[in-house]
Amino acid sequence: xxxxxxxxxxxxxxxxxxxxxxxxxxxxxxxxxxxxxxxxxxxxxxxxxxxxxxxxxxxxxxxxxxxxxxxxxxxxxxxxxxxxxxxxxxxxxxxxxxxxxxxxxxxxxxxxxxxxxxxxxxxxxxxxxxxxxxxxxxxxxxxxxxxxxxxxxxxxxxxxxxxxxxxxxxxxxxxxxxxxxxxxxxxxxxxxxxxxxxxxxxxxxxxxxxxxxxxxxxxxxxxxxxxxxxxxxxxxxxxxxxxxxxxxxxxxxxxxxxxxxxxxxxxxxxxxxxxxxxxxxxxxxxxxxxxxxxxxxxxxxxxxxxxxxxxxxxxxxxxxxxxxxxxxxxxxxxxxxxxxxxxxxxxxxxxxxxxxxxxxxxxxxxxxxxxxxxxxxxxxxxxxxxxxxxxxxxxxxxxxxxxxxxxxxxxxxxxxxxxxxxxxxxxxxxxxxxxxxxxxxxxxxxxxxxxxxxxxxxxxxxxxxxxxxxxxxxxxxxxxxxxxxxxxxxxxxxxxxxxxxxxxxxxxxxxxxxxxxxxxxxxx
Amino acid sequence: xxxxxxxxxxxxxxxxxxxxxxxxxxxxxxxxxxxxxxxxxxxxxxxxxxxxxxxxxxxxxxxxxxxxxxxxxxxxxxxxxxxxxxxxxxxxxxxxxxxx
Amino acid sequence: xxxxxxxxxxxxxxxxxxxxxxxxxxxxxxxxxxxxxxxxxxxxxxxxxxxxxxxxxxxxxxxxxxxxxxxxxxxxxxxxxxxxxxxxxxxxxxxxxxxxxxxxxxxxxx
Lengths: 524, 100, 110
What we know:
The complex is a heterotrimer of chains A (524), B (100) and C (110).
Chain A: H1 7-36, H2 39-45, H3 57-71, E1 77-81, E2 90-94, E3 103-105, E4 112-113, H4 120-130, H5 135-159, H6 176-189, H7 191-204, H8 206-209, H9 212-218, H10 222-229, H11 233-240, H12 263-273, E5 278-284, E6 292-297, E7 311-314, E8 320-322, H13 329-342, H14 347-377, H15 384-414, H16 422-443, H17 446-462, H18 464-471, H19 478-502, H20 511-514, H21 517-522
Antiparallel strand pairs in A: 1-2, 1-5, 2-3, 3-4, 5-6, 6-7, 7-8
Helix pairs in contact in A: 1-4, 1-5, 1-14, 1-15, 2-4, 2-19, 3-12, 5-7, 6-14, 7-13, 14-15, 15-16, 15-17, 15-18, 16-17, 17-19, 18-19
Chain B: H1 2-6, H2 12-40, H3 45-69, H4 72-75, H5 78-96
Chain C: H1 2-22, H2 25-31, H3 40-61, H4 64-88, H5 90-109
Transmembrane segments (chain A): 20-38, 137-159, 187-209, 352-372, 392-413, 425-443
Keywords (chain A): Membrane, Transmembrane, Transmembrane helix
Pfam families (chain A): PepSY_TM
């Protein structure tokens, strides 16, 4: 057994290895998480059939009610997804509320719209916490990566001796020194964000990751624990499913009664949650004596994550039947932490702050991965084989994923709208692009590979506004323009990065001499 | 791998032991501490459960760092401590036939 | 209104980070070598005040707990912008707060 190394040595080794081995996964998690900040906007961009009619929620709900009365007058429940600032679509469904089975209708005319089937921005959101693995496995892998991130952050702080002296230090153009400066600076300046986003990410699934308290105090029965948390929750779920207690189909429909106009409930809901803060409305037993209206808030009126909450009203009299019960403190802490991670609060300024911080974090992780190789390139050639593996993995995971993400957007617009199983095909393009990038990374010398992949992603991103204009079905609205311009901006950044790589002499001919023997064979 | 080997002699068994102890042992230790804490905290049952669980990730992180910072034989102290914590956390269930 | 407040809050955050930066010997020499050295002692307290101003402005944009989150995010990102400007465009680094303050009324009328 070797002697115990000093604290700096042990933490340095721990930081390097945790950062390297989990860094590839963490980059994917952080990048897709960053893109997921604008998931609704990306969903909207990827369904150009939808138009923003600029109607307020009260008018929209009238349109929806007319459609539902015409098409499902005797349904046991109606559900209406209201147009919001981030998602101006109007969706309706009848019967039991099920995700993905809603009909989209034009918010002005009430006509049904069938937008193209797409993976959407929601794909990035799901990828972010499951890495496209089966849900249970994916959550655990991401959780493990998150724990590694915490270890990397704290060990990084411990080894960064000159943390305050070097706070604003960045010396470009000095090779390894610059990479270390960049990695340190982006890590330290965004330290509050990194700690917060990582810890709160774990907190979202806290009972899954750490069931100890459930096992000890509730004999492992998580449902019992959840019931004790929110005694009102079970009732809410029952009502949302269109009936109190029993299955709707077995109940005899009650006598008919005239309901209050639904737009009145918008006003009632806004009184509680704030103007423009409603996301959906559902009616149980519409047109009957026991009709109830439930109004759900947009996530983000408070820091606390308010998923699943609703106000319930008597549909005939407008009387408030049930307001969400105040949350007990311990659960409030968990919901605030989850809310901090979900970043649904604070409007667009806050959303942009999260997006920019997420981009910097992703760059921070990538810089750490690159730093590892830059440092060792200068050392002895005996490390050739291992270093070579890390080099191509870095490129495949960082460059490849970026390319795959923008390829998904291009696929969304270029694949025919009526293609069968379109979503599957979009994903095939995503993973195909990633696989191609991976093979490219294996075959090319590192710097040349980086140059080519960065340039390819840059070109696709810079071309995004053109792609949108060419393939859009109407004049791009505010949301779509936002996506186009952001993509363009990111493309410009990547182009700058590619240009900087191209200035390195090793990115051109001389690389052949310095790269390991196998590369010299494949090149030229 | 070269970094592990180049420090003179076979370093990797020590490193591997630490990794396993930190990751697996760390989870078991954190699990036990969370259970014990949930039982000991002077709060309503549900609040104790949530609070203890929320803290668990910080505990796990510190444990991992500690396993790498201290000599391996010191890390073995975690074993008896874990046992005690498990007894506190699950004692009532194991010996008194179920909780609630 | 919100946009101009945001612009001001960002300017204050950036100015605060700039002041804290100037308070260090290394960056004072880099950016303000010509100024009287006795002024350096004022930089850190000025920086703290500017950051508090940024927090106050954040509280006008968002409700309390959200404002804290937004403020920390702004500090981090402004610090990063400063860090990137220092080696490439030190004059712009010094002049940026002024630019921000001048831009703010533009958003208000918009």
